[in-house]
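Priority: medium. Attachment 1 of 2:
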């Protein structure tokens, strides 16, 4: 099939959008909270990553403003190259002390699902400082 024909073909998501039942990309008209305004209606937010409700805490907002004023809107790079900020190092030192370890590393992305052929997940190895076991090739 020609690539342009494929792109122009009506996919199921377009049909769902046309019926008003497509569940993705609905714009919020309020801040993230346990309840939000979406499409002019008050709704319970069930799809957020705001598990602890921290996004609406005044203390967190105030600290976010201070961090913005000092560091700007983001790291502009990976932690490995140019994205490590002083606050990362401070957090890592506090976390290491909390878990009574020599050090800690905070990453923004980390898979915690153990793989079928690994005894411990990557997250467990990082957090517990367990020695890596040799990989078995099948």
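Attachment 2 of 2:
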């Amino acid at each position: 099939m020609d690539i342009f024909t494929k792109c122009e073909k009506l996919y199921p998501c377009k049909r769902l959008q046309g019926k008003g039942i497509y569940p993705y990309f609905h714009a919020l008209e309020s801040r993230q909270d346990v309840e939000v305004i979406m499409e002019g209606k008050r709704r319970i937010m069930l799809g957020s990553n705001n598990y602890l409700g921290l996004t609406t805490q005044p203390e967190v907002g105030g600290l976010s403003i201070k961090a913005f004023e000092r560091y700007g809107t983001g790291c502009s790079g990976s932690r490995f190259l140019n994205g490590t900020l002083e606050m990362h190092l401070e957090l890592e030192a506090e976390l290491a002390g909390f878990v009574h370890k020599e050090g800690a590393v905070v990453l923004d992305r980390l898979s915690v699902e153990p793989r079928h052929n690994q005894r411990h997940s990557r997250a467990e190895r990082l957090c517990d400082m367990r020695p890596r076991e040799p990989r078995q090739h099948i």
